[in-house]
């Protein structure tokens, strides 16, 4: 059973449920943020949206909610945790992933399809991709410009933690074209693009599907 | 009799009110009547004319008269659809004005039990090439839509953007919202059972938006912006999102009898209309209303247009079920009144009765047959074009023609995983089931309406329809937003009347009933009216395995022009609805039988721009010769005339297409072939790359 964590203002929660249930035919359910219990879940997705209306900073308020303590515990146990868009922002704000997401250089919200290059094929969410593979995914964010200090960047590179880099155009001014990263252990991944929006041909592409398939494979191998 | 202070009703209306009530209304009662009898709430100038529209049909489940309309989609699903304007607030406070415009129409959709699944934003803005304030308004209106629409998780899948100096001080911000509801679970804006509980749900009532509707019912005046600013509402998209999520859960309980959103006219309008529609009355306890500021005056409370509030009528005894869900989402609420058998509208405050009127006084405002005075058709001037290529490349950069990606890339157009055809095509397609979806298309050429209000209005409907036909959809219904000048001026009223007649004629001829709409009058600033803008949005149904796009596909495909080009360059082109109907039938037949692989309806910029957009979209050039068109008109007309009832299609099977057109009695001319990296029109040519750069960056370059 995969949980999809729902905060006030989450708006891709049902999209992720749709991708998991209807496209990947796997069990998934919403986990409302007031519901503290995560045990019993095999994986967790923190979906995109505007949790708490992006008040203060994107993801800043949600990151301080008590449920995040349980998310940390859940991640420490080695369970797969994926943060998409606002979910990525929450993971960075809560310290589960290093770095921060700042305002796009254009200072505008950007919704478009972008190309990315896969840089990590061992994490819980990237193992079904090939190294160097070029994939297409849609982005939709106003605060997606990844930033971290030099030391962190060095570590990310050394450990192979940079999962995805924008290719061609860098849509938001992200440091080193970073679109998505993972933690050292590889079980926590965050990215700005939306894999749930590109898991069906009808919607324009299927490159996101492998991310969820990777998670299911990771879960299967753990058991 | 002395005039009551701060009331904008005419002396005649004041007398009618006194007579109907049988006494002098008190201050709070005058304030409520002022709102309910305003143009914005009562449609007092437009209602007699709008009766011309056909409003019934086999798929209409909730016709005109509620907050929005509902039509049948299939055996299980129904589609709620509504259209609104938020023109005056956006002229004063563009971000808040545009944002709250979305908020209002989205709540209309929620109030019908439907989940909002798509928005469209037809915009009309000033001359951004010359007027700095228009640029400011444009950028901030888009920002308002972007920040609000994105946050509430409803994709903005389409719209329009037109630019003209007539909108410099009075931009038009129209918005369409579409929602999904099970056909047997539609909620009405009516409270037909006495004893039910009236609940006010959502944000605390504050001092914003006071006199919003009376502000919308008069002309804008330069220098008065500061004075009317408090009439603009403030947006809070997170609260709106929580209303969407909590209401979808509340509807599952079956505890809801009726629902209305608090929009224009705020508390006064929502509470009185819902009981009036149910043929009942209400006793309301003002002490129960949750307030943002504790010292608000009674008249401020009844007039406030604080956003993100809903009026819910709950079946007696089931209030706890509703409140439990609202507590889960931390949405504020209050039980503020009871539906009564006697049709009187009563408000008590601190134990005293402060309002006591028959409900129909609020629900039925007097209407007026305004005098009209025809305006002769405007004279048109056709430009002399010495260099066709230069004219064409410059035209692509014009804001009215250029690519609108600067706008729609700021909108989340994909959230909810339903958007199959995304912005940039003729119409949008939103998935409803695995097999079928809805298509939405918008039309109106304000410049044409300024030249000829009658033909312009006809074209708005014809173009909106062609936009969904081009993606393969069959029409179900339409909504409209009629933006006009001051109806107390006979010429503006004539433009309105003639446009309504034109639309009524089209709806009947094309067999598309209207299910909801909006009239926005007083779009004048400093006494000067806008180009009249009857904006139409057509909703259709499409099979997902038969959707069509405009991009050129395979090199070697033949390009065919369907329809006849007449010398209407720079003019308001005429519309023949019988011809439109025949042409649309042919196009749908070709799409459904897979005879064509690209399709685009021609509008702004005529054949030249239409072909170019197909090339940009598909990333392929073409080789045609427009001079060979058999119509006896000059090349300027052949290239740029905006004649209606025309499509460009591409095919591998020329004979089938030409044969089908012949059978339908329509003109089909093979223009040439797809391929290469040049746009070759025969009479001139341009490189695909150069042309696409002009078109793609035209809008953005004006804003830097």
Give structural notes.
The complex is a heterodimer of chains A (223) and B (704). Chain A has 223 residues and is α/β, with parallel strands linked by helices. Helix content of chain A is 23%, strand content 25%. A 9-stranded mixed β-sheet of chain A has the order 2-1-3-4-11-10-9-6-7, with helices on both faces. In chain A, strands 5-8 form a two-stranded antiparallel sheet. In chain A, a hairpin with a 5-residue loop joins strand 10 (178-182) and strand 11 (188-191). In chain A, 56% of the residues are buried. Chain B has 704 residues and is an alpha+beta fold. Chain B has a domain at 548-704: Alpha-Beta Complex (Phosphoribosyl-aminoimidazole Synthetase, Chain A, domain 2). Chain B has 24 helices and 28 strands. In chain B, the strands form 5 sheets. Chain B has a 7-stranded mixed β-sheet. In chain B, helix 6 (94-110) packs parallel to helix 7 (132-151), helix 6 (94-110) packs parallel to helix 10 (237-253) and helix 15 packs across helix 24 (688-703). Chain B starts with 10 loop residues before the first helix and ends with a helix. The A-B interface holds A 8-9, 11-12, 14-15, 18-19, 32, 34, 48-50, 52-55, 108-112, 138, 140, 142, 194, 196-197, 200, 202-204 and B 143, 146-147, 150-153, 236-238, 241-242, 245, 328-330, 408-417, 419-420, 422, 431, 544.
In short:
The complex is a heterodimer of chains A (223) and B (704). Chain A has 223 residues and is an alpha/beta fold.
């Amino acid at each position: 059973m995969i949980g999809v964590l729902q905060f006030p203002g989450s708006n891709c929660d049902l999209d992720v449920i749709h991708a998991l249930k209807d496209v990947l035919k796997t069990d998934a359910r919403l986990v409302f943020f007031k519901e503290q219990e995560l045990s019993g879940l095999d994986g967790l997705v923190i979906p995109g949206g505007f949790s708490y209306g992006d008040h203060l900073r994107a993801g800043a308020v949600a990151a301080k909610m008590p449920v995040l303590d349980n998310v940390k515990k859940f991640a420490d146990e080695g369970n797969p945790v994926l943060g998409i868009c606002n979910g990525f922002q929450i993971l960075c704000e809560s310290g589960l992933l290093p770095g921060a997401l700042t305002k796009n250089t254009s200072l505008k919200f950007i919704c478009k399809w972008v190309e990315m290059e896969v840089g990590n094929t061992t994490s819980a969410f990237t193992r079904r991709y090939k190294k160097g593979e070029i994939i297409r995914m849609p982005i939709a964010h106003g605060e997606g410009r990844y930033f971290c200090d030099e030391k962190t960047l060095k570590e990310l590179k050394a450990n192979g933690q940079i999962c995805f880099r924008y290719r061609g155009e860098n849509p938001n001014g992200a440091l080193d074209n970073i679109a998505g990263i993972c933690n050292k252990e590889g079980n926590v991944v965050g990215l700005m693009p939306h894999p749930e929006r590109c898991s069906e041909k009808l919607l324009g592409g299927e490159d996101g599907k492998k991310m969820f398939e990777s998670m299911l494979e990771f879960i299967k191998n753990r058991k | 009799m002395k005039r009551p202070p701060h009331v904008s009703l005419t002396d005649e209306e004041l007398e009618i009110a006194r007579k109907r009530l049988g006494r002098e209304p008190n201050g709070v009662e005058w304030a409520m009547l002022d709102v309910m009898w305003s143009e914005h709430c009562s449609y007092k100038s437009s209602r007699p004319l709008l009766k011309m529209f056909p409003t019934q049909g086999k798929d209409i489940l909730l016709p005109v008269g509620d907050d929005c309309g509902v039509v049948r989609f299939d055996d299980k699903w129904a589609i709620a659809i509504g259209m609104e304007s938020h023109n005056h607030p956006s002229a004063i406070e563009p971000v808040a004005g545009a944002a709250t415009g979305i908020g209002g129409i989205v709540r209309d959709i929620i109030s019908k039990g439907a989940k909002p699944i798509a928005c469209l934003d037809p915009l009309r803005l000033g001359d951004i090439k010359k007027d700095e304030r228009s640029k400011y308004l444009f950028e901030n209106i888009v920002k308002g839509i972007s920040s609000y629409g994105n946050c509430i998780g409803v994709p903005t899948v389409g719209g329009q953007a037109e630019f003209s100096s007539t909108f410099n001080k009075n931009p038009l911000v129209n918005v369409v919202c579409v929602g999904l509801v099970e056909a047997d679970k539609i909620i009405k804006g009516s409270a037909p059972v006495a004893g039910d509980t009236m609940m006010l749900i959502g944000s605390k009532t504050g001092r914003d938006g006071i006199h919003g509707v009376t502000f919308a019912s008069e002309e804008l005046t330069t220098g008065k912006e500061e004075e009317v600013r408090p009439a603009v509402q403030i947006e809070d998209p997170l609260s709106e999102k929580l209303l969407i999520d909590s209401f979808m859960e509340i509807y599952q309980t079956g505890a809801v009898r009726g629902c209305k959103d608090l929009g224009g006219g705020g508390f006064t309008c929502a509470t009185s209309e819902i009981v009036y529609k149910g043929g009942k009355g209400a006793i309301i306890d003002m002490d129960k209303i949750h307030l943002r500021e504790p010292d608000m005056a009674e008249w401020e409370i009844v007039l406030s247009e604080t956003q993100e509030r809903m009026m819910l009528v709950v079946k007696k005894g089931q209030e706890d079920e509703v409140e439990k869900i609202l507590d889960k989402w931390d949405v504020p609420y209050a039980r503020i009144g009871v539906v009564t058998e006697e049709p009187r509208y009563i408000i008590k405050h601190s134990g005293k009765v402060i309002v006591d009127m028959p409900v129909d006084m609020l629900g039925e405002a007097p209407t007026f047959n305004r005098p009209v005075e025809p305006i002769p058709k405007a004279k048109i001037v056709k430009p002399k074009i010495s260099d066709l290529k230069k004219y064409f490349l410059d035209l692509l950069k014009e804001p009215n023609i250029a690519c609108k990606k600067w706008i729609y890339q700021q909108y989340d157009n994909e959230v909810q995983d339903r958007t199959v055809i995304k912005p940039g095509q003729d119409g949008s397609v939103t998935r409803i089931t695995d097999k079928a979806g809805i298509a939405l298309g918008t039309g109106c050429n304000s410049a044409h309406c300024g030249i000829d209000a009658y033909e312009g209005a006809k074209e708005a409907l014809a173009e909106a329809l062609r936009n969904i036909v081009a993606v393969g959809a069959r029409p179900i219904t339409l909504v409209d937003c009629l933006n006009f000048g001051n109806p107390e001026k006979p010429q503006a009223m004539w433009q309105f009347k003639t446009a309504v007649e034109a639309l009524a004629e089209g709806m009947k001829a094309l067999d598309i009933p209207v299910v909801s709409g909006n009239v926005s009058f007083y779009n004048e600033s400093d006494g000067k009216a806008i180009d009249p803008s009857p904006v139409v949005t057509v909703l259709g149904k499409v099979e997902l395995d038969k959707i069509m796009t405009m991009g050129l596909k395979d090199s070697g495909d033949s390009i065919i022009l369907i329809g006849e080009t007449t010398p209407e360059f720079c003019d308001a082109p005429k519309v023949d609805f019988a011809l439109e109907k025949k042409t649309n039938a042919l196009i749908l037949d070709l799409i459904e039988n897979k005879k064509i692989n690209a399709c685009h309806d021609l509008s702004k910029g005529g054949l030249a721009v239409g072909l170019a957009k197909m090339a940009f979209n598909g990333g392929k050039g073409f080789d045609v010769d427009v001079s060979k068109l058999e119509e006896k008109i000059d090349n300027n007309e052949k290239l740029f005339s905006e004649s209606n009832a025309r499509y460009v299609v591409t095919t591998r099977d020329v004979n089938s297409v030409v044969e089908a057109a012949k059978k339908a009695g329509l003109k089909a001319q093979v223009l040439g072939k797809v391929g290469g990296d040049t746009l070759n029109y025969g009479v001139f040519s341009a490189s695909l790359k150069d042309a696409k750069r002009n078109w793609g960056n035209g809008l953005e370059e004006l804003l830097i």
